[in-house]
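Chain X:
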Amino acid sequence: MKSVPPKPSLPTEAAARADFNQIRYAQCWEDADVLLEALDVREGDVCLSIASAGDNSFSLLSRNPAKVIAVDLNPAQLACVWLRKAAYARLTHEELLQLIGARPADDRQRLYTRCRPDLPTPVQQFWDARPDLINSGIGSAGKFERYFMLFRTRILPFIHTRKRVDRLLAGGSREARHAFYTSTWNSFRWRLMFNLFFSRFVMGRFGRDPAFFQYVQGSVSQRILQRARHALTELNPAENPYLQWILTGRYTTALPHALRPENFEPIRRNLDRLHVHHGSIEQYLAGQPDERIDRFNLSDIFEYMSEDNHATLLKLMVSRAKPGATLAYWNMLVPRSRPAQLAGQLSENRALGDRLLLQDKAFFYSRLVVENVT
């Protein structure tokens, strides 16, 4: 696993407006099952991936690519990636779950101590200074996860009892899920508190950076509420690790792709194919003019930039892509997809994106965009 120091970069709009010095996301809140089907990663592919906390970059490793380049502006996010990488190398699968916080643990500091020799010195210093984050489980260490903890501990008990939460997460047939949602879960108090807590102001203050709403129009909470209803009724909560963590602070009956036992060894075998880069996508591509990419995992980065900057970055990606390369990215609240000026170079697979969105267990997003280089 290699780390390359940053080179002079192209201007990055998000970096100019948001703080990138804390852990924002201690987990990847994008469904890796959906991502893997969208990208259709093949053995020998070169993948460029927004790092975030690393989970989805590790999921890409499970498909035996030649290389996964995990890129992030935020060194704190890359500290999460490095520690996960060391955990895959040094720990058992059960111990990895304990370090994440997905399972109870008596001594997470002991697990961290075993991982620590594999960490670069700055990453050791980062985690050494934050024993509370280790002790709580590194999957809880981000601002977004603390936002959900606030919802879980302060808001949810005012709306529903623990018994109701357990009943929701038990799932059941589609008919039973719809009946429970309609008769019990979708109360006036649920809608009121949801609309308040997931409003633009509260989410910007406690969850995401306010700068990330620069290009959002309309009601934030209403859009997320519609997607939440889909996740609680059309999808089975018993199979949804993201929903389980939000409502309980752990995974109860399901795990994200990168943490499932059947994916542990394939990821471990391919750890040397993971390359970590501090900087922006623009920076990486400008600094590696001979690199050609097969698969792009772009998270929701286009939410944070203007239409002009979105088009400029897409054009740069196309210029660095192999023929037939695939790009996948999410729209949460800001519509972004291939601009008309790239119609001859990039085609959208709208049918695939729409189908996969209906399966997306991380239910915040309004659209999944899948595009192919022609």
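Chain Y:
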Amino acid sequence: MFSQKLINLGLDMFFQQQIAGADLANIIPVRVINVHRSGLHLVGDRFDQQIELRTSEIQLQATVGDWLLFDLERKRLVRRLERKSLFKRRAPGSDRREQLIGANVDTLFIVSSCNRDFNAARLERFLAIAREATVLAVVVLTKADLVSDPQEFVAAARRLAPGVFVEAVNALRLDSLCCLNPWLQSGQTIALLGTSGVGKTTLTNTLLGEPVLTTRAIREDDARGRHTTTSRSLYQLPGGAWLLDTPGMRELQLTDVRTGLDDVFTEISELARVCRFADCEHQNEPGCAVIRAIDTGEIDQARLTRWRKLVREEALNRATIAERRARDKATGRLYKSIIREKKTRKND
């Protein structure tokens, strides 16, 4: 029923079941390949177009990687298919709005590097996002050729979450990236996540086999690169997988990822369940299993400190976003009541 091109685009059974039995005479499934300021680049079976979004279509909140149904006759979007995964963040700025990063990702390549940019707290943050989205995470450590022993960085990354996959590579050499092949099968979607300068653009260009994106040299004073990617796009790799490249996210904030944090910091979350008090803050409360583990050396104090910081950040963002949603709903109800009142006065 569905063409091989759609399957290669990533239309697996999860999405096929959502449209099975539907009348698709003039309606086709399309995938969002790129998000522009006012429109989308859509690709499907014998379909490749950029469209400008109408007001009603903006409500679909489509992001790169989404699957949509498109009406060929009316030239408009019908609906968005249910997502199997979604990455989002609190957008930079003070209004704490949520910003969608990408949808329907199978594997997340969390990119860091074997130099001063390696940051355990940042990797834990990204791993929590992946675990919350129930997406397989692979930590890819670039610039392995620039250090004497990259395995030191590999070991440090593996200690950050149970069962995490970690690979050290030279992003400039395709043969060094063969270790990533198990996650690069046809129809699979891989997202790149990492801050500026860790080699995401170089990794993308090497996997693609051509310099699609522009790179810039690292700064000599702090070994950091300059960010070059400015939009989120899907690129098809020679083997058939799809690669989602994202801008650097220096202001990535946690939102609704408490389960993900518990999975990453499982040694802390499991002990917290047996503390004497349910609301234990693991500071100096009596009967605190976490503090007891710190005293015995079972848990590292620095890791507990990072966990506390991320839990506070996630709770703050979740609360402020909920408050903003409540204000938006109240404002909407107010507008509707004003419109009804105006109609009533006009009829009188």
